[in-house]
Amino acid sequence: MKKAQIVIGLGFGDEGKGITTDFLAHQNPESVVIRFSGGQQAAHTVMIGDKKHVHSSFASGALRGLPSYFTEHCTIHPVFLLNERKELMEKNGNTELFIHPLAKVTTPFDVWQNRTNARNLEHGTCGKGIGATMKRHESPYKLFAADLIAPRGMLIEKLKGIAYYYGFMDEKQVEEALTDFLNAVDEMDWKIEDYTYLNSFENLIFEGSQGILLDMDHGIFPNVTYANTTSKNAYEICRMLKIEDIEMYYVTRMYSTRHGSGWMSNEKALKLKNNEEETCVFNEYQKELRFGDLDYDLLNYALLLDGAYVSATQKNLVVTCLDQTDETFKTEHLKTKFDKVYGSYSPYSKDFKQIF
């Protein structure tokens, strides 16, 4: 019987979804890893021995050797994808990427909008065009993965329309902006497949993006992401594929994090250790990575929200970064919420340790 394992962040992102996905990929090497929200803004770090990779345009099973699948709920950017593909090839990772025909394509004009719009910068942005792409797709100016393998003339006309949508009127400027984009489109070997592709796998690993507290419907507007970061999309796909055996992996660090602007409870400066490999550091768009004590009320709130979307056969809690603080994780606050509770000793541990 087919089984699905869904990895979800309980906070504002950066919880350890990448290493959790890699752990499940190690346990289930014949699986496919499915991204069902977000896109090229992910920074899911996996370390295997002396190899390290930050997964963005590929799912976090790629370094382990598993194929990736991006659903219609995701965005892709051909240039970012091509660059990461080259990195993975150098590390002998799996560069097989299958993309739903209706996945949304980010263009250079979307990236420009994210990086120059004053409101975006005020509210916080990753600077990779995700929000602009999603917003544009509410207009007639859409661009899907299927368009990347359409006749070139049709693709060019759609791209010109998107440039016009953002106010780019100079034809030469548009052509220059599209040079790298079109070169990447030509260089990639596109595998555009609908959900029937997933029927060839007995185990599906769904890798979430960001965290429930950034969900477009449940976060505190305007500091949210333009995506459903709950299990909503993953569970709908499971129902479509008639998968009933669904196991949840809810992920949190030992402490709270938030990258960029927005409300955060229990925020304070933390003295951390063993965090030299932190991926999410300061950048000019998202600004600082902020820290705070773990808020158990918020964790339970996030669990309540996600339970409204998914019916699971088993739920697990994954606690990462336990070696970065001397504080004790208070499992009693969540003990009644799970069948099993797991935590990882560190982001680089080979296995998860049972807490109780």
Describe the structure.
This protein has 356 residues and is an alpha/beta fold. It has one domain (3-101, 192-354): Adenylosuccinate Synthetase, Chain A, domain 1 (3-Layer(aba) Sandwich), CATH 3.40.440. Helix content is 28%, strand content 20%. The chain has helices spanning 17-27, 78-90, 108-116, 118-123, 130-136, 152-165, 171-187, 232-240, 296-307, and strands at 3-9, 32-35, 44-48, 51-55, 68-70, 75-76, 97-99, 104-105, 191-192, 203-207, 245-253, 256-259, 289-292, 314-320, 340-344, 352-354. The strands form four sheets. Strands 9-7-5-2-10-1-11-14-15-16 form a ten-stranded mixed sheet, covered by helices on one side. A two-stranded antiparallel sheet has the order 3-4. Helix 2 packs parallel to helix 7 (171-187) and helix 3 crosses helix 5. The protein starts with a strand and ends with a strand.
